[in-house]
Specification:
This protein is of the alpha/beta class. It has six helices and nine strands. It has a single domain, classed as Alpha-Beta Complex (Spore Coat Polysaccharide Biosynthesis Protein SpsA, Chain A). Helix content is 26%, strand content 24%. The strands form two sheets. The protein has a seven-stranded mixed β-sheet, sandwiched between helices.
């Protein structure tokens, strides 16, 4: 178990969302609110919250900063998810925390209760825990401080997939891991 006060919540919102089409995916409506607001609100219990946003997204930055997030700008979102991970973990590295909780801003069905259970299931050895729906591993994921160096050298668009390949699994239902990539590809 890890107390939420020992975790920095890291919300990745710095991608280009190319498959979604024109407009800002994270500001599009999902169940009556901007998509990113669902993830923002799910992380409200974490005292330390960091959001990685792409450059040139002032409305998104405002939405997240209004929710208490410290913002880190990703000036090179075209370089993939790893660049956002590196930036977020670099911002968390100097904080008095033991782990980061990696969440994606386009996963609106993750809620605070699920995140609390995830923290309760975390073990300091191996200092990794990733959600699994019976088919695939997916964020949210907890990554302990001892793995921050491995994140610092990630590149490309696979994020921490290789690091989390041998991580213990936290079972969730598939509907919880809804990841919005294309417009109209979901039911609110």
């Amino acid at each position: 178990m890890i107390p939420v006060k020992r975790v920095a919540a890291l919300l990745l919102a710095g991608g280009l969302s190319r498959r979604f089409g024109p407009g800002d995916k994270l500001l599009s409506d999902f169940a009556g609110a901007p998509l990113a607001r669902h993830a923002r609100d799910a992380l409200a219990d974490f005292g330390t919250r960091i959001a990685v946003v792409r450059a040139g997204a002032p409305s998104l930055a405002s939405l997240l900063s209004d929710g208490g997030f410290a913002l880190v700008e990703n000036a090179a979102p075209e370089s993939g998810m790893a660049s956002s991970l590196r930036l977020g973990v670099a911002a968390a590295r100097g904080l008095d925390i033991d782990a980061v909780l990696i969440c994606l801003a386009d996963m609106p069905r993750i809620d605070s209760a699920l995140l609390a259970r995830l923290c309760a299931a975390y073990e300091p050895e191996p200092a990794l825990l990733v959600c699994h729906d019976g088919r695939r591993r997916s964020p949210p994921a907890l990554i302990g401080r001892r793995h921050f160096g491995a994140i610092a050298v990630l590149d490309g668009d696979t994020g921490a997939r290789n690091l989390l390949a041998a991580a213990p699994l936290f079972a969730v239902t598939p509907d919880r891991l809804l990841d919005i990539d294309e417009p109209g590809g979901y039911l609110a």
